[in-house]
Amino acid sequence: MNDRDNLLQNAGINTRLTHIGNDPSDYFGFVNPPVVHASTVLFPNARTMETRSQKYTYGTRGTPTTDALCDAINALEGSAGTILVPTGLAAVTVPLLAFLSSGDHVLIVDSVYTPTRHFCDTMLTRLGVDVEYYDPAIGAGIEQLFKPNTKLVHTEAPGSNTFEMQDIPAIAAIAHKHGAVVAMDNTWATPVYFRPLDFGVDISIHAATKYPSGHSDILMGTVSANARHWEQLKEANITLGICGAPDDAYQILRGLRTMGVRLERHYESALTIAKWLEGREEVASVLHPALPSFPSHELWKRDFKGASGIFSFVLAAEAPEKFKAKAHAFLDALQVFGLGYSWGGFESLAVHVNLNDRRIRKAPQEGPVIRLQIGLEDVVDIKADIERGFAAANAV
């Protein structure tokens, strides 16, 4: 380890985010690495070509640009290696394909990202994998669900849309006792606020589309593995022929430089809005792990260093037949918030959450669930926009 690496290892998070991933001295002093577009890579002779005994051999297996981003993610995750894939969903599906075979049993948290559930219920099932969903609050009780052929436990904390926390160390300990791999979708917290591998997770999954990008214009996923599982993950990725594009890797690396300060703003503004919503009569409950009132708040407080800008609330409605009408009225009145999927960008977004696919953690009965991504706008303007939404919902 050189002096620069040693300095960064012990530096604050924003210092690290500013400098990890590349050394300007490697590129004639230019601050950012060059974007290397590649398919064919030339070899100096037949022997080198035969043995692939040079650093770069083909575009799908990495370039200086993609390596710079992988190095940065490894520094954040504390991982042995990272792969880049074109989307956040691919970041989930590649490790599932890497570590599961026909006849295996996999445990998937019931509060999982909906497209992940769709992949499990369709392609994984068709490939002969036995898929079982479990309660996010199960903790060490997950041992009761293990079978001799249980090979992987997929976690997500907090859970999609309803934000249930999981006892990751307890689940990881049980999984390892039975020889299973533990994967975690850590998109919400990012490795800035939670480092899964430090808590027993083997595979850390991140939709870099969200906060690393930060500008709602790039699709990419990262998957980071500990030393024990890195080679198998890397080999599966090469076999599948999936890789992240160098232009996108460059943009994500650039986004990392400001991710720390952006996350601080998202965290502060979202928590301010969440606390304010708790006092509103139009709100039945607020689903935010950083609120002391949230059922699994203590797990968040114990393990996480912060929170991001996305959470949900239950819009109070007196009858189920009014749920959709009230939700749509609320959303249609918004002017600062955009109506759109994804999150992690600079702009505030809102969506009416569909929880019909849940097996165990059913949708709240008090009203429709509205998910908010709190962007970088001023809190006073965000509150005023939500007020517009409440006024419209109250008129239904």
From TrEMBL:
Alphabetical list of InterPro entries matching this protein: Cys/Met-Metab_PyrdxlP-dep_enz (IPR000277), Cys_b_lyase_bac (IPR006233), PyrdxlP-dep_Trfase (IPR015424), PyrdxlP-dep_Trfase_major (IPR015421), PyrdxlP-dep_Trfase_small (IPR015422)
Top-level taxon of origin: Bacteria
GO MF entry, a single one: pyridoxal phosphate binding
Keyword Lyase: yes
Enzyme class: lyase
EC numbers on record: 4.4.1.8
Keywords, comma-separated and alphabetical: Lyase, Pyridoxal phosphate
Family: Belongs to the trans-sulfuration enzymes family.
Protein name per Swiss-Prot or TrEMBL: Cystathionine beta-lyase 1
Gene responsible for this protein: metC-1
